[in-house]
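hey so i finally got around to running the thing on that chain from the lab meeting. sorry it took forever, my laptop kept dying and i had to restart like 3 times. anyway pasting the input first so we r on the same page abt which one it is
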Amino acid sequence: SEFKRPFAARTKNDQGVFDALAYFVKSSTSGSPDLRHTGYYVVAPISTSSLRTAKYSMWLELVTELAKEFPVVLVGQTYSKTPVSDMTAQEFTAQVDGLPGVVNLIDQTPTRSAMAIIQSAKCVFCVDSGPLYMAQSYQVPAVSVWGTHHPGVRIGYSPEYMETAVWNTEVCPASPCYAHSGFTSRCPRGEHQFLCEPMSTVSVSHLLDKLEIVKRRSTPKPLGTFAKA
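ok and heres what got predicted. didnt touch it at all, straight out
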């Protein structure tokens, strides 16, 4: 598993891409943050598979909560077919447009642009998809949501990322099923299963609890006191 650890280097061109995106965000709407000088979270909720999709209403609530503390930048692509959860991906992006403290860059961030944004984030919130591994490649903290796969199969080499993985395996007796092509007869809802059960039961509190772990790691430890001689 040690050889699965992703790695990426930031190039001079990547820095230029990030500066251009930050300038675009700052100048596009009055009051928008300057990402070059402001801490921010990244949320990447989009997946092309129902097996790796959580409820968009959950992501919407999460974005709203996170934006109370730091700006939130959304990344991802909806060019490919995206599954419907409790709403479509397009309905989700329409609802996040205009939210205070939220910068919606969905469908505006090709791979290198997304990597440039993720590298400077305080934390990334995502499913088992590309943004998770982009975050790992730069050692940026990530709270990831898992369904059919045991997170240890893909991020088991990193205790830090395992600790902040959300995997509600207790709600499905077949988990992990390692399904790739679709739902199986072992799913709790049978033919009525349209989202992976462990992912569909993820709540905002699950993710915020993991964020607290990230914050504790980044909090400087108080200096110790010297004993009197």
